[in-house]
Amino acid sequence: MGVEIVGLGKCLPEKVVTNDDISDLVDTDHTWIIERTGIEQRHVATVETGVDLACGAGEEALRGIDRDSIGLVLVATVTPDAMVPVTSAQVKRRLGLENAVAFDINAACSGFMYGLWNAEALMKNGAMPGSNTMEIKRALVIGVERLSRITNWEERSSCILFGDGAGAAVLENRPGSSGILATYLKNYDDERGVLTCGKEYHKIPFWQDEIQPQHLALRGKAVFKFAVNSIEEVTMAALEKAGLTLDDIDWFVPHQANGRIMIAAAQRLNQPIEKFQISINKSANVSSASIPMALYDLSKTGKMEKGDKIAVMGFGGGLSAAAAIIEW
């Protein structure tokens, strides 16, 4: 039994924030940002909620698909609109996915990859408790972020990196097909705190906790080293599970964290950068949304053909990393 991607969607906020706009906030300029990140602009939600973005991407991914056949809605996010109800439950309700079980996960920038892995496993192992169907025929997996809400807009090295948006994929059980050939995930202990974000809670009279600022914080050089090393490790492990080599891969779709990271990863894997989907220039780093958004962008180029093999790679806080090999 194969689990294939049969629909993709993407949704971006209307407001575009250029590098020149960023230079009005901190001491930087367009050239400095481009040279260090490859980012030209990012989208920032001003009126759109996270649920709005998730549903926009989901609507597009579901185009032409029977909504009653969706048995699972899984949303990966680090920036939910609310703690309860979870984002997936709100998406399920708004999109009218009556037969679906819904839950959220948080694996930082690896979130979509962990969601893909969860969905595939559940689809291959039969019915979910509470599902009205005998098995999960189709699943909707979404990555959505409003990173602008946890970005420190006074910190030059980090505020240039992040944006908002959503990407979605519909997975389908197709007996006899290939689809997802192999997946490999790994967690690494972040002993030095190279990538963190605190959580602000209302203070209560009994607390002795220190206040944690709810801002993304990263140690750039350490993140760069981890990203390049982990991309190589999880990609090679996934390829080994699939019985393939790097030269069998037609397209690489990495997490869009930084243009320099993708160039370094291509060099480490000894693969031409032309085989890498690069979308960061127009949308920046959108954490768990970046991979499905980049997959969507690649699909719209018309370059992918039936039977192409794609390596999809994510890495992020935790620390976490994952790769999947997919036959299109």
From TrEMBL:
Pathway(s) it belongs to: Lipid metabolism
Superkingdom to which the source organism belongs: Bacteria
Tagged with keyword Repeat: no
Residues of the Beta-ketoacyl-[acyl-carrier-protein] synthase III N-terminal domain: 103-186
Entry keywords, A to Z: Acyltransferase, Fatty acid biosynthesis, Fatty acid metabolism, Lipid biosynthesis, Lipid metabolism, Multifunctional enzyme, Transferase
Family: Belongs to the thiolase-like superfamily. FabH family.
Pfam families per record: ACP_syn_III, ACP_syn_III_C
NCBIfam families the record matches: fabH, PRK09352.1
Name of the protein in question: Ketoacyl-ACP synthase III
Organism listed in the record: Anaerovorax odorimutans
Keyword Lipid metabolism: yes
InterPro entries registered for this protein in UniProt: ACP_syn_III_C (IPR013747), ACP_syn_III_N (IPR013751), FabH (IPR004655), Thiolase-like (IPR016039)
Record domain Beta-ketoacyl-[acyl-carrier-protein] synthase III C-terminal: where: 239-328
